[in-house]
């Protein structure tokens, strides 16, 4: 029962599965069949049985259906067989129709092929036209590029290349010719870079060659701009110069006017010839090269190359020639090249952006300025010609003004000018030392004679001499100074003018210029003129008369110093009462020269006395005097009288000192003659003769050869000789020995040593000449007296030596 119940339960399930198999797709049968095996055991057997029963049922239904439709199938086959015959006929007809149609269509096919071929050609032509229309602009642009390259329009060529790459090549990039073009463009760019760089090198070489012309042009322009103001300054200075001592300044003033007029005429002639830097140099290569490298994106390379090459050129320009200091043209060429270099750099700075910067030009200028100053300092030190130094200064001023106009700082150049000014003053001093020497050599050292009013005015116009007494005298008459005095005065003023020339255009105030003029004039007076005067005074051929005239000359030059101060004031328009005004030191200069001349007068006068004294020819053994003074002494006295007459033009103290010095020296020379160690014997007759000569000396002293001595002051120069000779002439030894050392002693000036020396010489003479004196009582007594006096004198001398 249980089994029956289970079989009843599975039948509906098997039917359901069979329905699903029949109704679903074969792909989904798997899960359905799996459910058969997942059910109860042995269920698949039952399912197979059920499946077989189902198949048998379907076979039965198929068989029924075939039996039902069999007659209809037979009928359809019969009809089909009937149709077969008709179909064959139709086939024949169709075949025939097709044959005839094929035959008829062959011509059409031929024409159709022709049409198709033409259409294809037409389509191809259209395509070609379209492609050519697309390529033609590219080819035209490339052709344009070639034309630009041939015409050296490289910047435009680069722009064309950019258009080709960015606009045209993308249209035709698939074509081979485009690839060739694309591959050729980098080479063209390199060619352009090389060509433009070559042009730049040519440009750099060109501006290097034209730098001097560019600089010359720029300096002319700067000088022309400054001409008017400088001319006005010169005119104002000349107007000031007319206010005082117009007669003394007329010659330099006329000269300055002539020079000014000449310079203005020259500038008017050259004004139309001045060109600009753009007229002299074609800057297009550097612009073009800059644009090309900018377009190529390599602007930094170009800037570095340009700056490097220009620095090299700057070093070459700054290197002077070894003989530059010999001529002004050497300096001018040096300055014009430097100015030309920096004018070009300034132009490049203002017309380009970034190629040259202000920092770069400032750095380059500072480097150049240091080199320029070092070069000028070195080469100017070789200059010995003040005119060359002055021209150098003018060139430096124009050079500085020119570059200052282009914005370059030039203060260090003006500082250098102050160094060169000192050197200029040194060269002036050397030149004027030669001028003064020539003046002194040409002077005759005698008062200036004048025979008429015209000659008098000529001298007065050259030298500020004022003497009412001389003006009242009738012609002919003489100025007290010699010809060198006005010449010296004129040359000192010429020196001031020369020194003033250097001070012009230095952008300094009148006070500073006044101070510079006074200091340089002081150097001229205290060093150059003083040295020339001292050398002149010490020259062997300068005699006493010349020395006297030199003293007179220095006196008048000393008096003229105040006029020189007024002259400088007149030029600079700076009052002497200004607190910081430097004074001229001419007073001390001429005083020192006068003192040297006075000392030289004393020396030469003593030398002349020595020359006369050397002519003395005494017979020291004579028994009796000649009864008259020696000839050499009378000649000496006459010489002194004539010399002291010349001394009347000297200051009183100078003449008195010279006279006193001469008398003292003569007295000393005569004393030394008596005491000469080579003189062994002196007779009483020689002493008497010597006494006659001393008497003439005393008479000369008492005759007051030079006024101003009080009483017998001059005679005191011979007091030592007088007391010594009186002692021996009178033979007053008892009084000498008794009064020795007393202030009121008659023979106070007689030294025991001197008396002993002379007495011993007389004692030897007595022994030699009086062989038989021992047989005469008087001579024997005198000999004993001499020996006694000698002993006493020796004791005095010994006592003096022990006391000292």
Structure description:
This protein has 804 residues and is an all-alpha fold. Among the domains are: 283-408, 5 helical Cullin repeat like, CATH 1.20.1310; 429-599, Exocyst complex subunit Sec15 C-terminal domain, N-terminal subdomain (Tetracycline Repressor, domain 2); 668-801, no CATH class. 78% of the residues lie in helices and 1% in strands. It is built from 27 helices and 2 strands. Strands 1-2 form a two-stranded antiparallel sheet. Helix 5 (176-241) crosses helix 19, helix 13 packs parallel to helix 17 (510-538) and helix 26 packs antiparallel against helix 27. 27% of the residues are buried. Residues 1-8, 240-272 and 770-775 have low confidence and may be disordered.
The run of helices and strands is HHHHHHHHHHHHHEHHEHHHHHHHHHHHH
Radius of gyration: 68 Å
Q: Helix/strand-derived class?
A: mainly alpha
How many helices? The count is 27
Looking at CATH, the homologous superfamily of the domain at 429-599 is Exocyst complex subunit Sec15 C-terminal domain, N-terminal subdomain
Q: Do you know the CATH topology of the domain at 429-599?
A: Tetracycline Repressor, domain 2
The total count of strands amounts to: 2
Shape: rod-shaped
CATH architecture assignment name of the domain at 429-599: Orthogonal Bundle
Main sheet record: 2 strands, antiparallel
* Strand neighbour order, sheet with most strands: 1-2
Quick one: CATH class of the domain at 429-599? Answer: Mainly Alpha
Mean pLDDT: 81
End-to-end distance = 193 Å
* β-strand amount: under 5%
